[in-house]
Amino acid sequence: MKFASLRLIARDVQGLVGFYETVTGQKADWLAPVFAEIVLPGASLAIGSAETVALFSAGTAEPGANRSAIIEFQVADIDAEFERLGHLDLVHPPKLLPWGNRTFQIRDPEGNLVSLYMPDTEAARARFARR
To answer: Rounded to two decimals, what is the model's pTM?
Structure first.
């Protein structure tokens, strides 16, 4: 099995796509007026309008309702990314977590929690080198 993508459902698809284009530095591929993908190494971030939910099963997802998932991006330089993105809806500035990652978090325009991190300790760097 291959993890392929994470899909976010948005009230404002263009606004959310613009946010993630800024965060990732990648332009989105608009596959339909209500659906775009940002293709990254490892997986894609898909963003669809609320109207796309009905294509699967009406009412199964809703914009801005997530409080259980954190969207994470591994970066090479957490301080440079904080300088670049720290002006966005900041949850917390860079800090070291017990498992060795240094991270900061922001919220996207739909309220989803977004974490940028880098392995900072020797053990964390070794763990990611095996992947």
So the answer is: 0.93
